[in-house]
Amino acid sequence: MIRTSFNDGWQVRPKVNPFAELAGVVVPYQEVTLPHDAMISGERVASEEGAAGAYFPSGVYEYRKTFFVPEEHRGKSIAIEFEGVHRDATVHINGDYAGQRPYGYSLFRIDAGRFLRYGEDNEIRVECRAHQDSRWYTGAGIYRETWLLVGDLVRIAPAGVRVTTPDIDAERAVVEVATTVLNDSIEIRTLDLVTELRDAAGIVVASGGSKVTALPGESAIARQRFYVRDPALWSVDAPALYTCDVSLTGLDAERVAFGIRSLRLDPQHGLRINGESVKLRGACVHHDNGVLGAATFARAEERRVELLKEAGFNAIRMSHQPMSKAMLEACDRLGMLVVDETFDVWTSAKSPYDYSLNFPEWWERDIEAMVAKDFNHPSVIMYSIGNEIPETGSPSGAAWGRRLAEKVRALDGTRYVTNAINNMLAVMSELGAFMRQAAEDQGAGINTLMADAGDAMNAVAVSDLVTERTAESYGVLDVAGMNYSDSRYALDRERFPDRIILGTETFPTRIDRNWALVRQYSTVIGDFTWTGWDYLGEVGIGRAQYASSDDARPPHNAPYPHLTADCGDIDITGHRRPASYYREIVFGLRSRPYLAVWRPEHHGRTFIGSPWAWSDTIASWTWPGYEGEPITVEVYSDADEIELLLNGRSLGRQPVERFRTAFEAAYEPGELLAVAYRDGTEAGRDLLRSATGPVRLRAEADRLTVSATGGDLAYVTLTLTDADGTSYTSADRPVRLEVSGAGVAAGFGSACPATEERFDAAERRTHDGRALAVLRPTGPGKIHVIATAPDCDPAEILITVE
To answer: Are 353 and 227 found together in one domain?
Structure first.
């Protein structure tokens, strides 16, 4: 089918009661280009239930678009494809109900032909809503791309070309291509199908044709088998891609990308890709794009994958919903492994109006949509059928798990199935009695036992109660996904020697111990931290917290105006935080030490951050007003010892334990140097300098040339620095943005975790000396950006749009 972007020409407004419009238009429409997040521009409001969604308001939204359908399209198959609409989408064409999709993360198509007026303008209207339906910021609206699909009555089905590589060795790879042909005509049709496989250089490496007969009103699958000599295998380090071109002579053609790679799984070798054992250095990632809200642009997804890989990750667990097509394609190109996830809920609700209301009726169709989307992507190695599903500790929940797992296997037998099980949540109904008994056995109170969430989860995880209640739920899986249950790794090696485990969600503060277990046990194939990238909503779970005088522990979530979870290795602007460098060292990917400095205003107070909270540090030695005051310096390293030098004076050497050490110093501006020693020999150094002199505003684009199409964006980082480029992390001030020419600002903000500023404003205050502007091209030409800040010369940058 001919696929044309359907993103332009839309309008949106909050849903209006039709009776209210009898007196005239109550709320005007606004012009928008998709992808679009209708919620991100809403006024945030402090409310008791708002922490999950970052205090953004609930809402119902309606989109409309007028589009012309030529007369020559009469008699053809016409569909409109939505890659994602959040949530409870209802589609009307020319006033008639045309279809719906409750789940906000499923790709779906609307058969539009029967509702269209040919040779005339047509109107499509989409209604959607978001209201207390998730535990994180979801956004709302048509937040992923849309497409118009036009084809003949006899055609290749959408997502109808599926490629597998069942047999691979060094000499050749067997490539099977299964093509589904649809025949909506009233005649038997016998057609010629021609398929060509091309390598990355575009050279045909295999080809063949076949006849395929499709009966009226039915589909037919043409299955072809090819042999590719000397195959270039897809892997994380060498993500070689091929293309498969299928032509239905004179009627239709489709092209898909695929990779040739093998997967194996066993307790002795763990996960093997192309015969090599691989440990998953994993990042859990939510779907929002920070300053863009939930809007899913191809470049935004690609940039996230690029930065995650640069930070040392080789795998992403999309949590807790299916990954976008754009991110899957980026993972294929860049070499990033994917665990794609279905749902955060099944039949038991976690939020008042969540997907559990739709799950019993829609789960099969939503799994079908995910697998169809993922099938040809070599990056996808595993499907997760759920996240922290409470039912997994019951026989009924185990039966549901079996249904879902078998459904996935029936659709795709080439990948593995997991489920991210929280063992404590699985036995929540019996947890009270268990904890009381445990407290009695240990001579401690319940509050003492529950003081550290990580310790409590692990204590419950190794109990006989969990072992018994979860046995069947784990038994239906290929890989036992465990959230916050590293205490079971050694236990299950003995009790369940054939059980292969994946740490599907773990605390960032435990990565050194967890990674040691991953390396120690062949049955444990990886670790996925919560989270690799900070996200909107679930506010403040990783925020810096200090003990108060009344000894009251702060609540799990932070109050308004907190905005982000504040727990990612990488912040919402794409800037790596100290935890990221620590993790890179633990992974064995960085030999140099890393300096991180505690914010001195809290020196002497007791840090009580949650297990998702890293130390309250940044990589800065610029602290005006704290001269002579005490300050704590952390150094991360895999060496034996660290020597710290301040302006050339040694502050001593200290041993490294758990990949870190800490020094106490009195702050003075200048240079702070950490030197690592291994076996008495220098093994690397890291240096921080104080910013000096006038503050300058610097603008730097990720690329100076971008595309006018394909969901491309330009990212412009705005940094306060001195003349030598050292960041002025302590000189935050408002920055005003002016964008002209062939582009507009799609989002403008900082990584500040608590703010009332908006992402659609022309002025934002920097955070730790940085802000980020994201520009969307509107056509070929030049985008001119001018940024200004008090007491700084303007910063200008010119970006070419081709």
So the answer is: no
- Exposed, middle or buried by CB within 10 Å (0-12, 13-18, 19+), for 268? exposed
Domain range holding 211?
154-261
User: Residue 628's CB: how many other CB atoms inside 10 A?
Assistant: 8
Residue 136 sits in a domain whose CATH number is 2.60.120.260
Residues whose CB is less than 8 angstroms from the CB of residue 410 and which lie 6 or more positions away in sequence, other chains included: none
The residues, ordered by sequence, that sit 6+ positions from 106 with a Cβ below 8 Å of its Cβ are 84, 322, 365, 366, 369, 370
Please determine, for residue 448, whether its predicted confidence score (pLDDT) is greater than 70.
Answer: no
Residues 248, 156: Cα–Cα separation, whole Å: 7
C-alpha 538/C-alpha 319 separation (Å) is 13
What would the pLDDT profile of 35-90 be if each residue is shown by its tens digit?
Answer: 999 999 999 999 988 999 999 999 999 999 999 999 999 999 999 999 999 999 99
How far is CA 506 from each of CA 72, 145, 482, 612, 759, rounded to the nearest angstrom? 56, 32, 9, 9, 30
Give mean pLDDT, residues 7-24: 88
Give the pTM: 0.96
Higher pLDDT, 549 or 537: 537
CATH of the domain at 784: 2.60.40.10
Q: Residue by residue, what is the 3-state secondary structure of 583-618?
A: HHHHCCCCCCCEEEEECHHHCCCCECCCCCCCCCEE
Predicted pLDDT of residue 446: 44
588: in domain: no
Q: Which of 128, 150, 172 represents a domain boundary (last residue)? A: 150
Tens digit of each residue's pLDDT (9 = 90 or more) over 540-573:
999 999 998 776 778 899 999 999 999 999 999 9
**Strand 671-678 relative to strand 641-646: parallel, antiparallel, unpaired?**
antiparallel
Whether residues 407 and 495 share a domain: the answer is yes
219 and 255 housed in the same domain: yes
Tens of pLDDT, residue by residue over 305-340, are 999 999 999 999 999 999 999 999 999 999 999 999
Domain assignment of residue 469, yes or no: no
Cα distance between residue 356 and residue 360, in whole Å: 8
- Is 629 found in the same domain as 707? no
Domain boundary (688, 715, 731) is at: 688
Determine the pLDDT at residue 435: 67
Helix (H) or strand (E) run with residue 367 in it: helix 359-374
For the chain, how many structural domains are there in total?
5
Task: Count CB neighbours of 15 within 10 A.
Answer: 13
In a domain? residue 493? yes
- Give me the chain's average pLDDT, please: 96
- Residue holding tokens 């929540």? 428
**Is residue 383 located within the same domain as residue 354?**
yes
Q: Is 794 in a helix, a strand, or coil? A: coil
> Amino acid letter at 14?
P
The encoded tokens of residue 689 equal 């300098």
Predicted local distance difference test score (pLDDT) of residue 14: 95
How far apart (Å, rounded) are the C-alpha atoms in residues 70 and 1? 16
Q: How many CB atoms lie within 10 A of CB 319?
A: 28
